Known about the structure:
- The N and C termini lie far apart (64 Å).
- The protein has four domains: 6-210, P-loop containing nucleotide triphosphate hydrolases (Rossmann fold); 221-266; 283-355 and 432-514, 3-Layer(aba) Sandwich (Rossmann fold); 517-614, Helix Hairpins, CATH 1.10.287.380.
- The chain is α/β, with parallel strands linked by helices.
- It has 19 helices and 20 strands.
- The protein has helices at residues 46-54, 87-92, 103-113, 126-139, 156-167, 180-186, 208-239, 245-267, 330-337, 372-376, 393-399, 416-428, 446-458, 470-476, 496-507, 523-531, 538-565, 570-573, 575-611, and strands at 6-17, 20-31, 35-39, 61-66, 72-75, 144-148, 172-176, 189-194, 197-201, 285-297, 303-315, 319-323, 345-350, 356-359, 383-386, 389-392, 434-438, 462-466, 479-483, 489-493.
Amino acid sequence: xxxxxxxxxxxxxxxxxxxxxxxxxxxxxxxxxxxxxxxxxxxxxxxxxxxxxxxxxxxxxxxxxxxxxxxxxxxxxxxxxxxxxxxxxxxxxxxxxxxxxxxxxxxxxxxxxxxxxxxxxxxxxxxxxxxxxxxxxxxxxxxxxxxxxxxxxxxxxxxxxxxxxxxxxxxxxxxxxxxxxxxxxxxxxxxxxxxxxxxxxxxxxxxxxxxxxxxxxxxxxxxxxxxxxxxxxxxxxxxxxxxxxxxxxxxxxxxxxxxxxxxxxxxxxxxxxxxxxxxxxxxxxxxxxxxxxxxxxxxxxxxxxxxxxxxxxxxxxxxxxxxxxxxxxxxxxxxxxxxxxxxxxxxxxxxxxxxxxxxxxxxxxxxxxxxxxxxxxxxxxxxxxxxxxxxxxxxxxxxxxxxxxxxxxxxxxxxxxxxxxxxxxxxxxxxxxxxxxxxxxxxxxxxxxxxxxxxxxxxxxxxxxxxxxxxxxxxxxxxxxxxxxxxxxxxxxxxxxxxxxxxxxxxxxxxxxxxxxxxxxxxxxxxxxxxxxxxxxxxxxxxxxxxxxxxxxxxxxxxxxxxxxxxxxxxxxxxxxxxxxxxxxxxxxxxxxxxxxxxxxxxxxxxxxxxxxx
Length: 614
């Protein structure tokens, strides 16, 4: 029986798919006011568990408990729509029966998610469909809200709106998401589904990784104790007295149980093996765009300006994050920059010997009816060239966590995360010096996402990243192109957090942001350093090259803020602005101090390397 405080709970829950036990003897619940995340690797059963809690799927054993009168709303990872319905009808169906017509509530919700009610569900984009499903779940005003990857395909303004809505939600919330920033800002409890067992942490996701590492270390110690116990049992059986046959049989069964337990532990969760090779060809210049613009005709006449008079220079090694609302023109900008579409005005020049690979979020390059094998080897045969070496198709797909039974299955049977891994597998089989990744993080589990970040961080080519994942951009981007939606594109230095800080500073009236500080050293200079026997690592050298520009920008921001706060009338006439400027100044000065210390540290390390002291 669930505790009275739980609105929904599972007791001794178990589920099997064929001969595979997904989980067994799970007991946990959600109380009013709890905001929890459910984490675990792809394939562990997170989505299935959410379906069971919502009543969408039955258990093989155990019970699901729900308090009488409690309404549960469930947002699936891939919503299925009645294509004959309008958006308005779909959202209205989520209203509680006792609310009545209440069309004004539907109109207000559609205004929040920026969807026209008269649109048919058929033909909605991925982001529009996700917003329609969100609107239906939220309008029901449930006591329990279960959400599977709610931020997939959403733009950043909608994600931030959703965060605020869920922060104010008073019921019980459980969410599955790969979006670290979303989980960090929102959750207060963490449930970890790992190899059929659920572990609970009474803290939010920001504490999960340290906790999981501690759990793994404890498990490793227990595993070593188990191995020693197995050795002792085997030794006893080999030397046991034959006459004590009954006792021997009992210990033999105990030994078999121990071996089974060890085998289960040794299985562990798999880890994808991602690698990407950089072609050492081409020069320092990758993309030069001069005053490029693009407009599209509107159905009712006239045109809509997507990109207006944008100029930029992209050099080898740059990592450009591209952000903006859905429909603002991010994909259009990328396609112009790589000459997939022509600008209406202006021009684009690409560098020489560029080999680019393109990750398309719509997965249009994947034939849903082809098998995984055919996708990797369309010309037939059982092997492919992977970064210059021959490799068996099945062996290579196993590196991306596909098992033997999946390689002959059609692509349409794969989950969203599996399709993304298949695309990455096909991309990373080839060498390149320019990677374009359009929303690569959707549906990936966090471990694969972390590995993808590590691989891209070591990539020596150029990256163009279209993403709504704030943590992903902060960990990779050296500059941000913000596509505003009115044709304007503004370039900012740093990752997503830097872009937000600079935009806030610009909006506060303390000065418009300058173009981002690109690395001061040219690629030839970097190449010369790379040939030296005493050198910093690639990542450290790039960091050292970029720090002077960052320090200069932070110094200017600090001086502007200090000058503003020196006005004796600021505090009396604009106390709120005084407080805002004071907080910004503190952050800028802290960032400046940290940047200067890091620059000195790297300079000293470089000098010691040259002198042979390290």
